[in-house]
């Protein structure tokens, strides 16, 4: 009763399934502002891959370890993060994520001075731990902050802010890391021995610059979050013999057993795996594709293509939100996925800069994919007491962002063609198209089972 009184005081009432009677605007905006923070970190990885490849003389497969460290952190921490959410609160998990993010950014200070690839990977992994906490909590939390019927639209709104963070990350990288040199690979190709080593260390010092600004934002967000009252938004059950409502906390084993037997949920997790790999690999290698197709372009100019990609992604989200508010969500995603697949077919088959532009166009179709797959898969969980762990396992599917880029890197190294290697994300997008086509047919036959319908 005390918990209900607190919630009423702040203007929202928590329902038994964890959703709220209405969306608390300030809290929802505050959670949504966390979303661009992980976009910034992810897009900076695309800059770091190009920088590290030249300085550390890496092949394409080795550069993919940046994404392996990044998304490997997501995979390993998602379940522990869900357990922390279950025992504490979404707010506590978000603050924990911000602390790890701050520590990871701080590790760029010693990494830039030690100038070893492994130390940078440690810093990136620490950031990924923080982001795993943030995504595991914020993705589910955003969808729960209001009535169930609008869960998909809420998460799509929050996810619409992610491209703004991606744009900020690539702009910081373009001007603070790439800004002082035209083409690092060309410049260092004429250097040898101690001169090359010294210049490489100087370039690695530049990687520290954007993380100084990110640290300031993170500390401010942490303070605001610590001082703000937040809904718990967790499923409850009534204690037998009384009217008291307590949070329903099933064991991890019980949860895994339930989820593993939920076929629609498991198909959604697998689809999220392919989508995470698809998005990561396209963005990881777009700059490299541009540099390969146009040998006269500079690193800084090539990074501009990523700004265009994130703008296309942002616009794609806005357009998709309009379509999804009027038409079937699974129908809209089927068409977006199909057109994205066709765009990537052009990317790996046309040997000109047209391939770069169609890779950018693909980002437009990325727009609604991640949040829609997430909430669509979460909606397949009928028993809402399994929501926290269910959301964590979907986040674990981000391990696709570590595996698929590595596969594309291997294809590039063995085939000798960066452009041909884009056949890997094309196949991923084709599988995602098939998933949404099947789900759309299911929706037409069983509309009553689609909570977002």
Bin the strand percentage. under 5%
**CATH architecture grouping:** Up-down Bundle
Taking the sheet with the most strands, its summary is: 2 strands, antiparallel
Stretches with pLDDT under 50, minimum 5 residues: 1-6
Mean pLDDT: 81
Q: What is the SS-derived class?
A: mainly alpha
What form results from the Cα inertia axes?
globular
Membrane topology: Multi-pass membrane protein
Pfam families: MFS_1
Protein name: L-fucose:H+ symporter permease
Keywords: Cell membrane, Membrane, Transmembrane, Transmembrane helix, Transport
SSE layout and pairing:
Blueprint: H1 2-9, H2 25-32, H3 35-55, H4 60-63, H5 65-87, H6 90-106, H7 108-114, H8 117-144, H9 151-160, H10 162-177, H11 184-188, H12 193-205, H13 209-227, E1 236-238, E2 245-247, H14 252-260, H15 263-293, H16 299-326, H17 329-349, H18 354-366, H19 369-379, H20 387-396, H21 400-415, H22 423-445
Antiparallel strand pairs: 1-2
């Amino acid at each position: 009763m005390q918990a209900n009184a607190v919630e009423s005081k702040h203007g929202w009432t928590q329902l038994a399934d964890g959703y709220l009677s209405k969306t608390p605007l300030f809290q929802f905006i505050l959670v949504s502002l966390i979303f661009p923070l992980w976009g910034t970190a992810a897009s900076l990885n695309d800059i770091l891959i190009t920088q590290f490849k030249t300085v550390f003389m890496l092949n394409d497969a080795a550069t993919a370890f940046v994404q392996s460290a990044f998304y490997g952190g997501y995979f390993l921490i998602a379940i522990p993060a869900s357990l922390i959410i279950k025992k504490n609160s979404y707010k506590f998990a978000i603050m924990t994520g911000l602390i790890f993010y701050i520590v990871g950014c701080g590790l760029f200070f010693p990494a830039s001075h030690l100038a070893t690839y492994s130390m940078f990977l440690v810093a990136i992994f620490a950031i990924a731990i923080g982001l795993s906490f943030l995504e595991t909590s914020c993705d589910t939390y955003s969808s729960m902050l209001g009535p169930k019927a609008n869960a998909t639209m809420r998460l799509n709104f929050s996810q619409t802010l992610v491209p703004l963070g991606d744009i900020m990350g690539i702009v910081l990288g373009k001007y603070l890391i790439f800004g002082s040199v035209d083409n690092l690979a060309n410049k260092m190709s004429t250097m040898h021995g101690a001169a090359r080593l010294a210049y490489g260390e100087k370039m690695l010092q530049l990687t520290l610059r954007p993380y100084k600004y990110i640290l300031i934002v993170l500390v401010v967000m942490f303070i605001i979050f610590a001082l703000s009252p937040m809904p718990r938004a967790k499923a409850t059950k009534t204690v037998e013999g009384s009217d008291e409502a307590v949070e329903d906390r099933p064991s991890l084993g019980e949860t895994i057993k339930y989820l593993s037997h939920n076929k629609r949920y498991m198909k959604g997790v697998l689809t999220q795996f392919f989508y995470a790999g698809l998005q990561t690999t396209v963005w990881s290698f777009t700059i490299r594709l541009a540099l390969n197709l146009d040998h006269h372009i500079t690193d800084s100019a090539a990074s501009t293509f990523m700004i265009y990609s994130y703008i296309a992604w942002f616009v794609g989200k806005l357009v998709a939100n309009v379509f999804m508010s009027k038409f079937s969500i699974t129908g809209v995603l089927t068409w977006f996925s199909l057109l994205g697949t066709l765009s990537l077919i052009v990317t790996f088959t046309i040997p000109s800069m047209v391939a770069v532009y169609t890779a950018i166009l693909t980002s437009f179709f990325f727009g609604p994919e991640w949040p829609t797959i997430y909430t669509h898969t979460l909606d397949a969980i009928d028993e809402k007491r399994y929501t926290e762990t269910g959301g964590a396992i979907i986040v674990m599917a981000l391990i696709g962002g570590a595996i698929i880029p590595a596969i594309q890197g291997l294809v590039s190294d063995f085939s000798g063609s960066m452009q041909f290697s884009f056949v890997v994300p094309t196949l991923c997008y084709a599988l995602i198209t098939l998933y949404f086509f099947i789900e759309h047919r299911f929706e037409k036959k069983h509309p009553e089972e689609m909570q977002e319908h």
